[in-house]
Amino acid sequence: MRVTAVAMLISTAASAATVAREDDRERRDAVRRAVEAGDVLPLSQILPRLRGRVAGDVTGIDVERQRGRWRYEFRVIGRDGRVREVYVDARSGEIERIEEK
Predict the structure, then answer these.
(1) Which residue intervals define the domain PepSY in the entry (predicted)?
(2) Per-residue pLDDT at 17 exceeds 90
(3) In the structure, what pLDDT confidence band is assigned to residue 22 with cuts at 50, 70 and 90?
(4) For residue 74, which of 92, 83, 87 has the smallest C-alpha distance?
(5) Domain ranges of the chain
(6) Residue range 74-91: average pLDDT?
(7) DSSP calls for 38-99
């Protein structure tokens, strides 16, 4: 009985990992197409703008499409030790808002 339960858990985990990888690949492809189409600025253009406005180290980056718009989300640890999430319009490069966590 335990062997069957363990096998089912492994099978379920493997299926979930496969779906996650496919979703990640689809998402990366969508972002790549958006950059190529000019709908999203590449990180090489966004990061210097961000660093000029928000002091600290970027420790995480996400890009997502919400309500028909692409947005970068950066996690920044400031020199003061505070963690901030910085939301940037991916098309214009403008900072939309900064939240302290």
Answers:
(1) 41-99
(2) no
(3) low
(4) 87
(5) 1-37, 40-101
(6) 95
(7) TSS--HHHHHHHHHHHS-SEEEEEEEEEETTEEEEEEEEE-TTS-EEEEEEETTT--EEEEE
Structure tokens at 93: 């490069």
The CATH number of 40-101 is which of 3.40.50.11270, 3.10.450.40, 3.40.30.10, 3.90.78.10? 3.10.450.40
pLDDT the model gives residue 52:
87
Write the CA distances from 25 to 15, 28, 71, 76, 85, integer angstroms: 15, 5, 18, 25, 25
The number of beta carbons lying within 10 Å of the beta carbon of residue 80 is 8
Per-residue exposure over 28-59, b if at least 16 CB sit within 10 Å of its own CB, e if not: eeebeebbeeeebbebeebbeebeeebebeee
Q: Average pLDDT, stretch 10-38? A: 69
Query: Do 87 and 97 contact (CB within 8 A), yes or no?
Result: yes
